Amino acid sequence: MINQSYSRDFEREADSIGYRLLVETNIDPQGLTRFFKKIFAEEKLAFTNINDERNRHAVIDSMVFLRSHPTTEERIKHLQHMALKRQESFRDLSAEFDQLQLAVKQFVTSNTPEEIHNGSSN
User: Fold this and answer.
1) In the chain, where are the structural domains located?
2) What is the pLDDT of residues 35-94, one digit of tens each?
3) Which own/partner pairs from 27-34 qualify as long-range (CB within 8 Å, at least 24 positions apart)?
């Protein structure tokens, strides 16, 4: 439990460094915020699957207390706060991202799970 605050601090620092690296390479760091927003939405969805409200709150409270990382919501707020300080324009990497997504889809659909696990491909 004592070490968890250190782990949370390391994660906050990692988020800040990741944000700065994206800015330094002229990549829009809002993608990092969007990533955490997607995770947050998935977390919320998972909690709604716990039917009993009392149990749901108990799970949420326990996770906040036991987790080694800052909450996803806290990470989003931290990144948004960092973004308020910056107003530059960034490279548009949407075409490259679309190509990457296509390549990953092609790789996954052309290889069986065993081939992917063993590191071989067609």
Assistant:
1) 2-91, 92-122
2) 999 999 988 888 777 888 788 777 777 776 666 678 888 999 999 998 887 767 888 888
3) 27/90, 27/91, 27/93, 28/90, 28/91, 28/93, 29/79, 29/82, 29/83, 29/86, 29/90, 30/83, 32/79, 33/76, 33/79, 33/80, 33/83
